[in-house]
Amino acid sequence: MCVSSAVEFAPSVKMLALALSFLSVLLLVLLCFAVAIVRNHNYLKAVPKPPGHWILGHLLEFGDPTDFLKKASNCASNYGGLMRICLPPSWTVVVITDRDVTKKIFEETIDKSTDYDYFKPWLGTGLLTSKGDKWKQRRRLLAPCFGSLELMKGFISVFETLGVELIAKLQNEDGNTNLDLIPFMKRYTLDVLCETSMGVPLTSDGESYRESLENLCGVLVNRLKVPYKRIDSLFRLTEDYHIQKRSIKVIDSFFDEIFEKKLKLLNEGRTNNGKRLAFLDLLMEFYKTGELTKEDIRAEVNTIMFGGHDTTAAGLAFTLYTLANNSHVQEKVVEEQLSIFGTLKNVPQQTFEDIQQMKYLEMVIYEALRLYPPIPVIARQLPNDIDLGDMVLPKDLNVIVFIYGAHHDPVYFPDPEKFIPERFENGEVLPFTHFPYSIGQRSCIGKKFGLIEMKSCLSKIVRNFKLLPSVPLSEPMLVHELTLTSLNGVKISVERRE
């Protein structure tokens, strides 16, 4: 064989080897899929299943994203709180709203489903994505930070300052009969998180950070919804992959700059130049002792920014929407504010103690989070077989705990579509039926922080504005993305209180 022929032949051999390797991997993956399908079918055949198409499964019944939550909620209720649905090309999904099964899942399972792996390029293996012993160790380490009463009290000044800025922006909307709350609430919550988690304001120089955060959320939604983007090798061929890389680079650079400043202060024996502490300041102490690396801290800060951004914004927007459309409830909230402050105008800075007195407002928030849970579904991967008596949920199965469905189940909440804050007045709500912040060992570590933030913000808004239904009346078109959102916004009318 001549030299030129050998040179031409070599690439062909390499390409053939690559093709065979790819084919072998594909066949192995398909074989694993087939084994899992057969195994799960054998285990899950006792789980009730709504009628569906033999090929399309339940795609025709549940394929409309704007109708999915209500249809799936009604269906889960009709099937006793436990059912399986198939939405090709995904696996069969077990959907749970029954409180006894939910309790068992949360008591025996701490690992998130494999879907959360898509968050790792951005969030690393922090509290949201880590599993097993690593998650337990990290949770024990961080719990005191989020439970610190002094830290929470220190954050009140942030809520106040940024709340005043929010009120000024809303005053420009005085008389607006079709105000979409989502953009205002997103900006407020992101500003709050930036100052409380990293200790810096998100000024105009931080717009690239804000934009990158929104872009990453969009990429994650696409990965979860578009089947071929779930495959890493195919995802790398898409524009979303490049958006993800650029966005992570911006977010990492923003963090690196702040981290280096904090590290310099730490090395000089100073904490924060006498300023209010942020979560990052507490995490730096763990860096000093060697309990956390820089990458560990990056993962936790990014997790805080992601986990507390859209969720609290959605909670605020939907609570304001319910107040605007339930004037009698709004008046009770206003009366409570008057009883605490004696006036609605020229109120001095709220204190932690003031916020603790807002008991009725707290019930309003809980009821709004029941109707519109910011995280409508959460997924768990079973660490072992779970015996339910008449059936077994197999090890490694990914199950959906359907928070929205549980919150709208008439067995637990009579007249579930009605807004009745008094449901939460006497502690009569059953455990494992209302869990907007999840529940059990893996419940949201920042739920106390989020509740205080919401109460502070809502208090300011209701003291300054009368909230009314939008004109024309706009009912949210609810869809489940990373958080609960509305395709047509969350709209109300606002009028300044004189």
Task: Explain the overall architecture.
With 498 residues, the chain is α+β, with helices and mostly antiparallel strands. It has helices at residues 3-44, 59-62, 68-78, 99-108, 120-123, 132-146, 149-171, 182-198, 207-225, 232-235, 239-267, 279-289, 294-307, 310-324, 327-341, 352-356, 359-371, 403-407, 447-464, and strands at 82-86, 92-96, 179-180, 377-381, 386-387, 392-393, 398-402, 465-469, 478-480, 484-486, 491-496. The strands form 4 sheets. A 4-stranded mixed sheet has the order 1-2-7-4, sandwiched between helices. Strands 3-11-8 form a 3-stranded antiparallel sheet. A hairpin with a 3-residue loop joins strand 9 and strand 10 (484-486). Helix 15 (327-341) packs antiparallel against helix 17. InterPro entries: Cyt_P450, Cyt_P450_E_grp-I, Cyt_P450_sf, Cytochrome_P450_Monoox. Keywords: Heme, Iron, Metal-binding, Monooxygenase, Oxidoreductase.
Topology of this structure?
Layout: H1 3-44, H2 59-62, H3 68-78, E1 82-86, E2 92-96, H4 99-108, H5 120-123, H6 132-146, H7 149-171, E3 179-180, H8 182-198, H9 207-225, H10 232-235, H11 239-267, H12 279-289, H13 294-307, H14 310-324, H15 327-341, H16 352-356, H17 359-371, E4 377-381, E5 386-387, E6 392-393, E7 398-402, H18 403-407, H19 447-464, E8 465-469, E9 478-480, E10 484-486, E11 491-496
Parallel strand pairs: 2-7
Antiparallel strand pairs: 1-2, 3-11, 4-7, 5-6, 8-11, 9-10
Helix pairs in contact: 7-8, 7-19, 8-14, 9-11, 11-12, 14-17, 14-19, 15-17
